[in-house]
Each structure stands twice: as C-alpha cells, then as structure tokens.
C-alpha cells in the first residue's frame, strides 16, 4: 500500500486552503476593488477633469504651469499625502483581519481547521496571506490603472510622478501590513468579534491617547513645558506603539518631500516583524477553549483593566481640574482615587456581568489605584524638578531663543508667524550662548530675579522658548517667563551679527516671491487705508529686494528704537510654505530705509513726516489706565476706561499732541494707552490705538479740555 508523503499532502492542502479562502471571501476582493477604484482611478479622473474644465480657459498662455498643476493633482491622489487612502488602509486592515480569522470564535470551526494535516504556523500564514492578497492586489491594479491609464491620458504622467506613485504604493502596502497584523493580533487575543474590534482600537489608539494625556498634564502642571514633535513623543519612534500617528507623520513628511531617516524605516519593519512573530506564537499556543470568551487568556483582563483605568482616571481628574472643581492636594488625590476605584469596578462588571464580582481581582485594583495616585502626586509636586531643571553650562553645545514678542517690530500680521518658533529654534542655534544661558537661569528661578520682578509688577513679563542642544546629542526645549526687557537685551545682542538676522528676520527667511498685489499705508495718515502700488512683476521684485536689503542692514536694537513711517503690504504671494491667495502680509517701513523711500518717491509716493489732522472733524477717546503689569490677568482685572469726545480743531490738535502712534507690541511696555475713534470730513471712520506719552500730563489735559462722558471698570 502506497503512502502519500506528509510534506506533499501539506503542500497540496495549503494551496487548496488558500484558494478556498479566496473563493469564500470573494466578496472581500470585490469590495476592495470597488473601494480602490473609487479612491484612485475614478478619483483622479474627476479631479483632473475638474481642473481642465475650470482652469484651461484661463491658462491657455501658460501651459507649462497647467502641466505642473496636473502632475500635482496626480501626486495628491497617488502620492503619499492622500489621507483617504491612508484611512482606507486602516478600514481594509480591520475588515481583512476580522473576516480572515473569525473562525477562531467558533469551537466547531477551530476543531476542523486544527484537524487538518498542517502545522498551525502554516495554517496561520495561509489565512494571513489570503487577507493580504485580497486587499493588496486590487489596490495595486487600481493604482496602476490610475497612473498609466488616467494619468497618461491627461498628460500628467512623467518619470517623477511615476516614481513618486510607485514609492507611495510601497509605503501604503507597508502601512496596511502593520495595521493588518495588529488587527490579527487583537483577534487572536480575544474570543469574541466585539472584543476583538475593541482591542484593535486599543492597539491603534492607546499610545496616541496616552501621549495626548501626558502632554495635557505636563502643560497644566509645568509652566516651562514646551511642546515639539520630539518632546511630545513619549513612546519614541516605534510604530508598534503609535501606529496611527507615526504612520500619519511619515505620510506627511514624505508628501512634503522631507527625507525620512533610514532608522524610521527600520523601526517600521521591525515593528511589523515583532507583531507578526507574536501572531504566529499566539496562534500556535492559543487554547481552543478561548472561543466565546472575552479574552483568550485570563491574565489579559487584569492587565487591560490597569492599562485603561489609570489613564481614564487621570483624564477624569484633568477634566475636573479644568472646570475648577479641584483645589489642593487632598481634593486632587480624593478625586483620582475615587475615579480609579469606580473605573476598575466598571471593568470587572463588563467582564463578569455580575455585580457581586466587581471587586474580585483586588490586586489589579490596587495597582490601578496606586498608579493613579502616584502619577498625580508626581505631576502635582513636581517630583522630578521639571520646572527648575537646567543643564550645566558645560553640557551645552549650542542654544537658541525665540519669543513671538520679537516679531512686532517687523509686522502686525501675527497669523503669518504661526510656525516661526520651531524653525528659528532649530536654525538659530549658536555656540555663543552665554547671554541665552543667563536668560534661561533667570527663567528657571536660579537667580530669583524673574519672580521678584513679576511680583512687584515693575516689569512686563513675557514667555521665551529656549532650545538646548546638548553635547550628547539631545535636544531639549523649555518655555520660561522672563522680563521683556531682558529678552530684548539678549536678542539685541544676538542679532548684532548679520548671519543671525538672516535666520530671525521674517523678511529674509520667508523667501516671498510671485507677489501680484502691492499696497502701502502711510503711518502718519490716520485715514488708515491702503493705497495700491501699480507696479509690474519685475518692479515689485526690485522693490522687495531693496526692502530686504535695508531690513538686513539694521540691527534689532536699531529697528526697536525707530518709529515706522509706513507699512508695505504684500498680497497674493508665494513663500517657502506655499501660495497665499486672497491674503496679505504687512511689513513696517522705517525712516532709515532710504532706498525704499527713494523708490517710492520716484513713483510719486511721499510718506508724511507728521500727522495730517486737517480732515478730522471729531474724535472719541477711550482712555484705559492699567494699574498692574505683572500678568495679562492682572492687567485686565485692574483697568479703568473713560470715554471722552473732542469736536474742535484746537482740541483735536492738542489731543494728538499728547498721543503717540506705536507698533502693537510697544503697548505692552506702557501702563497707559487709548483707543481713538476718528471721524473724517467725508464721513469715513477709523479706529487706532495710541500710546499716552506722559500719563500725568495727559490726565491734566483731559481735565482741562473735556469732561468724562462715562467711566467703567473692565
């Protein structure tokens, strides 16, 4: 009697099982094909058709730009930055994992599959491979159809777009494999589909939610905490712990054309290998009696209870703190302890569905309670001296400093500076950091000066972010509260060097180009309206080059001491962050900018040397007196406002003799300023904020010229 070779039997059975799996789940193949087709070829066709319909009549004379626009649309759909494909990978991974291993929830099916003449490892890989193929094959076919068919037909296909699309396809396959493997791991660890889905969500989001919670707690308890992508990542760069956020970060970096370190790819592959190895090990060891249970292993209940109860209790406490319900250590610990106890009881009830067993696992409950209380105490008492930490000066290789207050001498368009901090803190590192280190010492409380000045109210305090680059390669960021005068002194010394100005001055590092609209505002014309500059593209570029050159020739201290004579507004422009359509950014023009002013004079624009008050017919003054300057809260709560009206030419001239128009940031250094509503002879109103030159003399002037109409506290 002939006997069949066991290996051949296993091989034939394995191929047959793979084919049977594909036939049984053919609906999955169809679903993935429809989804991929909708996202890729059909999505690309719709976007390219829309672009051609909307823009072709306008861009007949600039076909090169039109071709580039089509290539960009192709990259938006088939490249790294398509968020729909990214989240489609997550959905496809969950569906493939649950449908591929749903038989593990049935004891009868488990007994059948495990009775086959196949080792468990091979059986697992067959099912795993089936789910992968039924998702990856439709995606790759649709991506190829979109690239070669749709992209080629519309003239968007070139070597660069093809290479980028191929790289993105490989990236999304790797991403899908990671999500898919984690979802399979969740199914193997559970005995019910619902708990499998919940555990999948736990694997995907737990690290990100814990990271968010830690960031929230640190920003609440530590005044020097400053968030960066590096300082806010408490689980390293391992995608196994942060699959969704790390994958999204990689996607955005690649879409922006940034170079991703080789270590990030190694960690991604390593995470996939670890997850897959755990799946094989657990599948081989998984007990058959796990079918129908919430979890495959009893110990998982206690582990998950502690892992979820602690951050959940901390979140409850954080919510109560933000609402102002907790004050003092005793109330904090009481709320945290109660939250931990109640949450562990809820988890036990979910597991057992029996109120009598809610305190059954006391050890895990004690761990959850103790962990919550210890973490709260560590944050509240600052056990690790986070706020007072300062590296030894000998440990520091270079430092950088930045504060948003510094931008006020360049522009009042603060929205435009929204991502300035991290760029300057990275590029502005200097090895001549003695003055910055002394500022950090002041902020960390080593000298005691910042606290005394803040308490006395004698100095306006502001926040400055300092970047420490240590000799061991670490980068540490801290946000300190320091006197504004000390910050300006430090930065003024730093920006004596022209090379530093190129990093700090926004006129230099933004690389503004392709400006289509240019206008100006006369600083001494209180009409306060923009006037267009009818210049061509080459003339605009020439003026901006002069403007940048003159900004760069002035130190920070020189700019700080001057008063602007005008504002130059750039509209519909492009810089190193992208195009800005329908928006404008204004830069101050200073009296030392002789070349810029001469250029404007040649085009008939003469900026006023002093205010023109002849067109003003009436003025309403809202006079605000600040009593405290130690913080924004004190400034608001201790201010008294008075309203006055001036209607004669003599009174109006006398009033403006007492006021001085200054930049917005200059109001921070004075205790008194006024909001002025100005009405002109043609019926136009303008509203401008002025600084009071001499508070005592101004109050005497008000007593002489007008009575207060109304007084109120703010």
Instruction: Work out the helix count.
Output: 26
Largest sheet: 6 strands, antiparallel
Overall tally of structural domains: 5
Number of strands: 13
Q: Decide which structural class fits the backbone.
A: alpha+beta
Q: First CA to last CA: what distance?
A: 103 Å
The whole-angstrom Rg is: 33 Å
User: Residue share in helices?
Assistant: 55-70%
Strand order of the largest sheet: 10-12-11-8-9-13
Topology of this structure?
Elements: H1 6-24, H2 26-39, H3 41-55, H4 63-78, H5 83-100, H6 107-114, H7 120-153, H8 159-188, H9 193-221, H10 243-255, H11 262-285, H12 299-322, H13 329-352, H14 362-381, E1 396-402, H15 420-427, H16 434-444, H17 449-456, E2 461-470, E3 475-483, H18 484-494, H19 498-504, H20 506-509, E4 517-522, E5 531-532, H21 537-553, H22 556-561, E6 566-575, E7 578-589, H23 594-602, E8 616-626, H24 632-637, E9 639-646, H25 649-657, E10 659-660, E11 672-680, E12 685-692, H26 695-705, E13 710-713
Antiparallel strand pairs: 1-2, 2-3, 4-5, 4-6, 6-7, 8-9, 8-11, 9-13, 10-12, 11-12
Plain-language structure description:
With 714 residues, the chain is of the alpha+beta class. It has five domains: 6-290, no CATH class; 306-381; 393-504, no CATH class; 508-602; 616-713, no CATH class. It is 55% helix and 14% strand. The strands form three sheets. Strands 10-12-11-8-9-13 form a six-stranded antiparallel beta sheet. Strands 5-4-6-7 form a four-stranded antiparallel beta sheet, with no helix packed on it. It starts with 5 loop residues before the first helix and ends with a strand. Pfam families: DUF6449. InterPro entries: DUF6449. The chain crosses the membrane at residues 26-44, 84-104, 125-150, 162-189, 196-214, 262-283, 303-320, 326-351, 363-379.
